[in-house]
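hey so u asked for the seq, here:
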Amino acid sequence: MKNILVVGCSYSALPTHNEYKAWTQFMGEDGYYVENFAEHGAGNLVIKRILQTKLAEKKYDFVIVQWSTIDRWDYPINNHYELTGSNPDGYKKSFYKEYYNVYASVLDTLDNIVSAQLILEKYNTPYKMILMGNLFEMEASIKSMKTLSINRGNYSTIKINNLLDTIQLNSNLDTIDGSLKLIDFNKFKFSSTPTNYFGGGMIEFLLNKGDYPRFKYHYTTEQHNLFYKEFIKPILNDNK
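ran it, structure tokens below
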């Protein structure tokens, strides 16, 4: 029986009050032993750090890393992470007001992916990376985060052209290509054809079926089960 680690955001996390069954729970019903450390509201830095911590603690047979949106800023203040997702107000308001920009978010996201792949290779652990949705085809401005809040987290309202095509480079000290060349895209599985490196995730998987999030802009048990059977299970079968 495979011992599998899952890290990610709410699109992979266990429900808070058993409102639905997450796709990771269907893995357990198929005989896999799953340790799910995905966190509601987690950004990609936290996802990478959870991965790093758990791999240092024990050996896993397989890992699934699910990346979240690029606009989330998670930095420990007073030794504590406050995971509030795509929210520019409250706890993190000063950061978003003074420092946040899309360019840095793109670079940070790519760097987290590079770092995570190096960590997994260091521990010689088989893995696959998946996405909440196409990371670079969702607007990441502060205005879009407030739109998300108004629309209760409906990410289909902020779909845009690929940021990797449109973002303006503002430094000769770093480039997007420098990070992209370090990423092994064979370790990703996308639900739609990649455009400029990245393809779709769980959002596009259901959109391609003419379906939308039906539980507070997340997914029902039936939708998670479909995602598991048609998207996740083939990954596991290929890595037995």
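The chain has one domain: 3-235. DSSP finds nine helices and four strands in the chain.
lmk if thats what u needed
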